[in-house]
TrEMBL record:
This is Unannotated protein. It comes from freshwater metagenome. Gene3D superfamilies: 3.30.420.40. InterPro entries: ATPase_NBD, ROK, ROK_cs. Coiled coil: none annotated. Signal peptide: none annotated. PANTHER family: N-ACETYLMANNOSAMINE KINASE (PTHR18964:SF169), ROK (REPRESSOR, ORF, KINASE) FAMILY (PTHR18964). Residues 1-27 are annotated as: Disordered.
Length: 323
């Protein structure tokens, strides 16, 4: 087994990725056990230093399950993946987890909105005990930001935001080559920027949040049909509202690239991105933000596992900024 080499001066404290000096953009060494926690599926894999997904197992997220039943389904996948190591001649040195938010302050417990059986569930500790690996959890949108900066549409870019527009709307921001964490680890959660003053009531309690207007859940509530059946008018309205939020972020943070994943955005495709780009062009006019682009994420179905692996590698200090 190869071991990751921490960056000079970086600390290794896998309980809290914020305590490391880890960044993005160069390949780590070693292999990561990658765990993606989603509302519809659990997926576990081994991801190589190159970003290649070597092995993967998935199952539907158990419905109406309690916390221990959910953990049992997850650890069964973990055991299957770890059992494949000997035959492959690789050994995981870290476990990285991407999970739906919100996160706890210490990145220790999870309360994914779409998984009701886990509320304040100590997933990091339980997985660490089960795998005997240093284990780190982060928000799935932040994990995607790491993945897209490592190997995807933002490769080589030091300042960008990654977004997920699916059931909900989330995001992660990389500035100066560093993923932003924030006080509670939720930095970049673009879903609660106001895009329609006095608009629809959001799950957070405010009105007119991006998530309340442009998420798959909201589109279904507005139109009475799944987002996949949305009309051209709804697709373009959704793109416009995403673009409105993106323009504010670009103007605020001096960045020129936003990468978007998620079933709603990617399912809507070109008309969605064109509407978003037109709104950005109209609202990001100040010189440093003018020319900001919104593009689809490029890692596809591998993005969540690569992102989870990146969360793990980041904690080891083995994702480093090169420019
Ligand atoms: Zn909100």
């Amino acid at each position: 087994m190869r071991s990751a080499t921490p960056a000079p001066g970086s600390r290794i404290d896998c309980a809290d990725p914020r305590t490391t000096d880890s960044q993005v953009h160069t390949s780590p060494s070693g292999v990561a056990l990658a765990v993606d926690i989603g509302g519809t599926k659990f997926e576990v894999g081994l991801v190589a230093a190159s970003g290649e997904v070597i092995v993967r197992r998935r199952c539907a997220t158990p419905a109406n399950a309690d916390g221990e039943q959910l953990l049992s389904a997850l650890t069964q996948l973990v055991d299957e993946v770890l059992a494949a190591q000997a035959g492959l001649g690789v050994w995981a040195e870290v476990c990285g987890v991407g999970s739906g938010g919100p996160m706890s302050t210490a990145h220790d417990s999870v309360s994914p909105i779409n998984i009701r059986g886990w509320r304040g569930f100590p997933l990091r500790r339980r997985l660490a005990e089960h795998t005997e690996l240093p284990t780190v959890i982060d928000n799935d949108a932040k994990a995607l930001a790491l993945a897209e900066g490592w190997l995807g549409s933002a490769a080589g870019v030091r300042d960008y935001m990654a977004m997920v527009v699916s059931t909900g709307v989330g995001g992660g921001i990389v500035l100066d080559g560093r993923l932003l964490d924030g006080a509670d680890g939720n930095a970049g959660h673009v879903g609660h920027i106001c895009v329609v003053p006095d608009g629809r009531l959001c799950g957070c309690g405010a009105y007119g949040c991006l998530e309340a207007e442009a998420s798959g859940t909201s589109i279904a509530a507005i139109t009475g049909a799944p987002a996949a059946e949305a009309s051209r008018v709804v697709v373009e309205r959704t793109g416009l509202l995403i673009g409105r939020a993106v323009s504010s972020v670009a103007n605020l943070l001096d960045l020129k690239l936003v990468v978007v994943a998620g079933s709603v955005a990617l399912g809507f495709g070109a008309p969605f991105f064109a509407a978003a780009q037109a709104e950005i062009d109209a609202r990001s006019r100040i010189e440093f933000a003018a020319g900001a682009r919104i593009v689809p994420a490029s890692l596809g179905a591998d993005g969540p596992l690569i992102g989870a692996a990146a969360v793990g590698f980041r904690s080891l200090g083995s994702l480093l900024s090169t420019p």
